[in-house]
What we know:
This protein is of the alpha+beta class. It has two domains: 8-119, Archaeosine Trna-guanine Transglycosylase, Chain: A, domain 4 (Roll), CATH 2.30.130; 128-221, no CATH class. Helix content is 30%, strand content 24%.
Amino acid sequence: MTSGDPSRLPLFPLGTVLFPGVLLPLHVFEERYRRMIRDLLDEDQDRRDLGIVAIREGREVGAARLPALHQVGCVARLRRVDPYADGRFDIVCMGTSRFRLTGDGLDTSLPYLRARTELLDEPPGEAPGPAAVTVRALFDTYREALGGDTNMTGGTDADDVPDDPRQLSYLVAATVVLDLADRQRLLEAPDTTSRLRAETRLLRRETALVAQLPSLPGVELARVPASPN
């Protein structure tokens, strides 16, 4: 989707998971990713897409081995770019849709990785409505257990929690304090109902854990995903 080959998506491997509809701020300082942003800025605005994909092992992919990356990631549209005089960038991306890496391997012809991908459908599943009602109630309870500090769950006000089951499923996946493995499983869920049912179990688990803690010193570390580039 850049550098003359629209069939290949530029990849930004990270130690975090991005979900559709979620904003992701990044500070870009490594040269290969500076090059990626410069290439994207040469494209039309509706073609400035990159793929955020979680690293399966280690902090950096290094030799560009496909097994080092999770197979499912999220397409991110470049929404804002603030350049520095020394070539660094502060950027903000918006997750748009899920993708799966195909079996063609990684393209290493440029300083950054590219790959052929296939977009994944978003089936609702068998009963997203009732599942969403349950998750909404559990999410409210979880936030209350955190002392009512909405910043600890991504700055989401109660009135901003969506009713749409798919949107709700991604908001909860992005804002509840979970480890990368749990987030990745939620991203890979086959449908909205499956994701909501998984979140029902996770919210009950996390709310019980929060209730047992005398304080929450590490919660705010999850407010903004960090870039390891």
